Amino acid sequence: MRLPNVLYGVYERRLARSLPAGSMPRHVGVILDGNRRWARSFGEPAATGHRRGADKIEEFLGWSEELGIEVVTLWMLSTDNLGRPASELQDLLDIINDAVGELADTGERTGRWRLRVMGRLDLLPAATAAALREAEARTAGVRDGLQVNVAIGYGGRHEIADAVRDLLRSRAAEGATLEEVADDLDVEHIQAHLYTKGQPDPELLIRTSGEQRLSGFLLWQSAQSEFYFCEAYWPDFRRVDYLRALRAYSTRERRLGK
What we know:
By secondary structure, this protein is an alpha/beta fold. It has a domain at 25-156 and 204-250: Decaprenyl diphosphate synthase-like (Undecaprenyl pyrophosphate synthetase), CATH 3.40.1180.10. Helices cover 48% and strands 14% of the residues. It has a 6-stranded parallel beta sheet, sandwiched between helices. Helix 5 (126-138) links the parallel strand 3 and strand 4 (146-154). Helix 2 packs across helix 3 and helix 3 (46-67) runs parallel beside helix 4.
């Protein structure tokens, strides 16, 4: 529902005040979906939608800071997306590269956030992967503020496979046999080798564009997550949409099996 600007502001402030104190999730994951469909609705090429979606990210991070969120994970490119037509994929990679570089500039200059790039960067062009790693390194000195994970070339199954592979190599370096690893293996051992190691699991996962599936996003970490599916395409996502997601989250009883 679209409201006149004056009423929209009143509604947004009332919605923000209605969120119970202490009800905010520490970690929010977002599937940034609908860029191409947004562009198509205006008769524009896909790249226009991707650029508009990239422009939305810093605004979203600002909202997250205001609301006290500690960690945000943004799914910008999946491993499945790598199969798109070469011309569209190159445009998308260029836009992502620019967007992450700008986020790193802001994080480094202001200390507002620290970037973590997560995904199969080995599947990306070498120059793109190198630029993403360099952007991440530029915010390595940020100790406080928002932690921002950018998932690029990411797939949940790939992450779990990478975690198991990293665990096996780590244990082998310690001299453990495969049988010893198998005997000892438990959930927390794999958890310690995920891309998000050291961070809380996401309590809330948001997907824009009206699609109601996770498509492999944070498969391991989402075991106890709450899901919120928003009709708005990502370029049209507003602060009020975020507040509605947080309100829905605050009303859910999270028993966590207890």
